Amino acid sequence: MTIQFNDESFRDDYTFHNSDWAIKRFPFPFHEDSYMYSVNMEQHRGGPEGSVYEMRFDVDEHYVSEMKDRAIVLDQDPLRCQSLPHMTLAGWDLLELIMVSKSEDYPDLFELHRNGNQWRWINKPLGIDHSFTFMDETTLPYGPMEYITRQAQGDFAVLDQRDEMLWMDAGMVTTQADWSLDFDIGMNFFEWHAPVPKAHEMGIFQRALKFLLNIQQGAPARRLNWTMTVNPLLDTSPENYHKWGIQKTTLTPENIAHKQHLRVELQTFFRLPRSNALVFPIRCYLCSFQDLMTVPKWGRRLHRVVRDLPVELATYKGFIDNRPMMLDYLSQFDDGLPTSPGIWPDLETEPPLTK
Amino acid sequence: MSKFEFPKSIASRPVWGTLEVRPGEHHLMIAEAEGAEAVLDIATPDLMAKTHLIYIPKGADFTTKLQALNPAQFYEGPSYEAALHRIRRVLEDAHMGLQVYLTGTEGMMGQAMNEVMAVGLPHTAIQTEHRGSVARRMQCVHCKGITEDVEVDPFVCVHCGLNLFVRDHYSRRLAAYQGVRVDAEDHGNVPKPKGIYE
Prior knowledge:
The complex is a heterodimer of chains A (355) and B (198).
Chain A: H1 20-24, E1 42-43, H2 63-76, E2 81-83, H3 88-105, E3 110-115, E4 118-123, E5 128-133, H4 144-149, E6 155-162, E7 165-172, H5 181-184, H6 189-192, H7 204-213, E8 221-230, H8 241-244, H9 256-259, E9 260-271, E10 278-288, H10 289-292, H11 296-308, H12 311-316, H13 323-330
Antiparallel strand pairs in A: 1-8, 2-7, 3-4, 4-5, 6-7, 6-10, 8-9, 9-10
Chain B: E1 27-32, H1 35-42, H2 45-48, E2 51-56, H3 63-67, E3 73-76, H4 80-92, E4 99-104, H5 106-118, E5 126-130, E6 136-140, E7 146-150, E8 152-153, E9 155-156, E10 163-171, E11 176-181, E12 194-195
């Protein structure tokens, strides 16, 4: 399949949009009509054809524009990409993982030619044809992690593993749900998750850490996480919160359908072979409410989830003030019919809206 | 009396201890303001004879009492920044087994801890005890500037002038808590500042 890359923006005039293809494959994060934290891990070993689960690193119609947006963020704030000195080897591991995966999974878009340490990397969508020496930083324009993650959608946290703990020691973070790499770099797993309410008490992080410490090479894992974003803004960083926070108050009953977006993170976890580090790609998918409502099952379910979410979580996810307006809108798409289990749209089998 | 019981908080927030005498040939104590009292609490002639004591009064007056302990070396610095050069020089010569005692504000202890770790001493060689002011060293997440000795929430960033609220999220690397614009979603609506633990 050839992907038609959108020319679109994630800021200012917000021309971001999802095609019908992108809507149908949107990773809707709710497998039932309610939501609570869980260690919802599963193996990342492909998935239904065309789904965001199919490839190791999903490439979609937003690829080229997302990479342009990342470059803008890095121009304005180079601290979004940092790597502590001991993490360079992990950066090479990551570069290899992404280049090998993409060239195998999308041979029409990416090519990797290796002759010993002499590598040639061709990235057709971004117009890159670059020969370099693997493990020789002087042959790349950036450090290895920065080089490859300027060419891969989603944020990347590279975690060192020592003392039975994971440490946030490197990362490329420009599409984050309100956390700061610059502030959190060097923290351990419990420290960087410290601000998350409830989950510590529920033992979520203790269990998640145990799971992650044991991830083996060649056996990656994945989970979905979600939040809400007004406007298709990728860079919802704390660094720029003083600029974008106000956008939350621009929501009205008239514009909510296209302005309010469900923001889903496909989080994957790969063990890296040389460094034994763990790479944690956090891929952000955005979908407007009106596009989500074209799938009757998702309309019914999103209404129920947002309605029943505990206040603490709605506050933490930053939409407590807008929740009543969201419910007014979403309730139009909930006719009370039962929904099928699982996240998939089930367009053929689920009944249309009877309201 | 100068000990403050910090409320239970999130996992990134540091927890300070209580100083105790540890065996060892070499001891480095850095005390700030009322931190002097924590030193006085554990001082013995034998311990102090092997101790380099660095004191930063910050308006408190314990100099005479500390000098009376007869530490092997005594230095009084007018500020942490001024003392830092000496601290780094002392740490350069530090041997394995050096015992470090830090006492005073969170900001001083956090920064000094980084200096000690930077020369490769294990964190197990460092003891801490909070004394005196509960003011915080804050980093503005927006402009990255550090505002020292913040006592109220919200406060004004001394670098960019935004009104920031005081989070409990703490970075050991920066030795600072995080400050975030308080009126980001409603410009100009800044709550009246009150003491951080009020």
